[in-house]
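Possible regression after last week's pipeline update?

I re-ran a chain I had predicted before the update to compare outputs. Posting the input and the new output here so someone can diff against the archived version. Not blocking, just want to make sure nothing changed silently.
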Amino acid sequence: MVGAGLAGLSAALHLRGAGVDVTVIEEQPTPGGRCPDATIDGYRLDLGPTVLTETDQLATVFAAVGESMDDHLTLRALDPAYVAHFADGSTLPMHSDSRVMHDVVAGFAGQEDAAGYDRFVRHVQRLYDVEFPHFIDRNLDGVHSLIGPALLRLAALRGLGRMDHLIASFFRDERLRQAFSFQSLYVGVPPHKARGMFAVVSAMDLVHGVSYPVGGMYAIVRALAEVAGEHGVDIRLGERVHAVRGSRGGYEVGTDCSTELTDAVVMTCEPDRATTLFTDPRPIRSVAEPSPSCVLLAAGVPAGLPGDGHHHLHFGASLRGALDDITDGRPMRDPSFLVSVPTRTDPTMAPTGADVMYALFPAPARHGRGMEVDWRSLRGSYRDHMLRRLSAAGYAVDDLVGEQLITPQDWDDRGMPWGTPFSSAHTFRQSGPFRQANLIGPRLAFAGSGTTPGVGVPMVLISGRLAAERVLA
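New output (post-update):
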């Protein structure tokens, strides 16, 4: 196993559960990959994903070795899942309980949109019921593996049309259209360019619910790594893999410390990074369009923050305009952004009376016109821009502790292609069977966000299981 992030740990536990001897080699001194954290002056800061959905997928990883997730993690359901803040000053708590949310939408925009919300919930659940078993939770072997009744059902559910048109068919209020379509950004595509099939992400968080693990998102990494160790998985940290080559019916994996002969290899790095490790040609797809990147500011707030709610979505006057800025390769002038306050759910993340704040501002990837942005020189002024926006939104940012600011240049410096932690965008030609295949040789597989099924915590956990199935087969 190359890499001890969520995908690598998932693959390792699924393989170990099948009776395979597993060694995980990770170049960083700690496991976690794109889900790291930092503890500074009593503040625990998550520096990766903050939204956890589809927790059944996480439970499946523990169950692979006969463990119960509940014995290792405490998850708390978030209610509301998000609070949406709009440019006109209105706010919308977004609950996963559809009966509660019906009444909220009725009070916010009227009975017609409340009825539209009811139809929306039924529709995205139907999308989920078609997509999850047929397009997400299985190994795909080319376009022909999709041809069948499920594809016809997906088309009938308008999954192949534009997502913004789909959402508009349920809601008249533009604010509701924004609130129920922003999820396409999770897969790297703005709503006006995304396919309707990606409305399934709304089913995952706004219908099935959002959770938070006590101890922060890194608690997931810690629990998986501990369980893996208890079940005999050898995790070697601080050791870099520099070559993978076929040898004697298996593979030689060369590291800084040794050369290992193994029957199978699962790679969790980005596919284009893996090409530098292979000594013989492999079928690696070139990425035409990476996902947008982000600027992340995480810090402790000693004075605490006002208000309630864990995840807050702040929309600018025009979400489309902000996303067009990113497409045009420039930072958003009127940004829409996410603020998470995990201490609302887990006060142990900060000293008594204090809070932790996590602010994520989408930004262009270091690709195409985005390469023209010099983040090294822009870093200070963009930080000031973020602080002004956060202050205007009601967050106390005058005194921050342990501040962590990560720009697209920093993501690039950390080895993430195109300076984005979100891998390749889920355009039509980079999704499903068109995405980088996870099987690239006999018992040689990819896992992680760069392969199928794609980006997001549940997806990379699934990718680890699918990769394990590949090498076991």
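Follow-up from reviewer: compared with the archived run. The chain is about 30% helix and 20% strand. Marking as no regression found.
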